[in-house]
Design goal:
The chain is α/β, with parallel strands linked by helices. It has twelve helices and nine strands. Strands 1, 2, 3, 4, 5, 6, 7, 8 and 9 form a nine-stranded mixed β-sheet that branches.
């Protein structure tokens, strides 16, 4: 399979120099690169054109979502370049690692049922903040067959066509939802043991962490609403409600109404942190005790913004709104 059979779709909004690094990492070698812009007010559009990418501007009158941007990108490729068989999706704050494209192509050519591959995404500046370090740990998922991928992945065009791509109305969690529909058709997703991208999370404040975690809760609710019969994301939703709402409220009321000593029930949270940190196994990384504790705290504390995201998704769906939850 030649390089010409692969097209690249990069999406973004106001990414600045991150977008330059992103596009420069994929341009060349005869590849068609499409940049889909979601209403940037900086020089992203001009920069992308000067670098040689084809630019698709989303209609400002329709709410922006990453899913909608990715769909616009691969559909543009399919229409303008029908010979393209594979699509490399890339977020505008990511840079592709040399050698990934060739590795991904070989993997997808080796099995008809394999339709999505992803690799190791790393943070560009993991030491900058603890939030960036948490992201770097999160990206290091197990090698082999997977339930889903993230925003950076190579997919077969035929698979995208078969399920009509991403759900345009999904503001978060669109990749797992797409992968769920692919797996329902007996197709597979795999994480390869290969470096794929450098990501620039640039999370420096607690509010950014909260918003990003809230978006995850929104994604769980949206995924479940779309596939309730299959119970997709039911486990994550139950966990969020239990740890982020039901348990803390019950401890509070029992302590208030029965005996203040029952408020010691809140000690279950640090105990849960210790339990998670003690069992933490994360990809190929060897994590320090400090990082294991930080990541375990993140896992427990994130239940609270997850609950906020669950309620937000329900409210947005009832109101018929599509509003992005951004953390940058």
């Amino acid at each position: 399979m030649s390089a010409a059979a692969v097209g690249v779709v990069a999406i973004g909004r106001n990414e600045g120099d991150r977008l330059r690094r992103c596009l420069e990492s994929v341009l060349g070698a005869g590849r068609v690169v499409v940049y889909v812009d979601s209403g940037s007010t900086d020089d992203s559009l001009e920069m992308a054109r000067k670098l040689g990418a084809e630019v698709v501007e989303l209609d400002l009158s329709i709410p922006f979502t990453a899913a909608r941007a990715r769909n616009a990108g691969w559909r543009h490729l399919r229409s303008a370049y029908p010979e393209i068989e594979l699509v490399q999706f890339l977020d505008g704050d990511c840079e592709l690692v040399p050698g990934w494209m060739e590795t991904a192509q070989v993997a997808l050519a080796g099995a008809e049922s394999l339709v999505v591959v992803c690799g190791r995404r790393r943070e560009r500046f993991p030491e900058a903040t603890v939030y960036n370090q948490l992201c770097d740990i999160e990206w290091d998922t197990p090698i082999g067959e997977a339930d889903s991928c993230g925003g950076d992945a190579m997919m077969k065009m035929s698979a995208l066509v078969a399920v009509d791509g991403f759900d345009d109305t999904s503001i978060a969690g669109e990749e797992p939802e797409l992968c769920f529909r692919l797996r329902e058709k007996g197709l597979t997703i795999q994480r390869l043991d290969h470096e794929m991208t450098l990501h620039d999370a640039n999370i420096t404040r607690f509010r950014q962490w909260w918003q990003r975690s809230k978006r995850a809760g929104h994604a769980y609710a949206g995924n479940f609403r779309r596939h309730p019969e299959a119970g997709f994301r039911r486990g994550q939703i139950r966990s969020a409600y239990f740890w982020g709402l039901v348990l803390p409220l019950n401890i509070f009321w029992l302590g208030l109404l029965l005996h203040p000593g029952l408020l010691l029930g809140y000690l279950v949270y640090p105990l849960q942190v210790l339990r998670i940190s003690g069992h933490l196994k994360n990809g190929g990384q060897v994590l320090s005790a400090k990082l294991r504790i930080f990541y375990a705290i993140n896992c427990v504390a994130s239940k609270f913004p997850h609950v906020a995201g669950l309620f937000d998704e329900r409210k947005s769906h009832r109101a018929g709104r599509v509003e992005l939850i951004e953390y940058k």
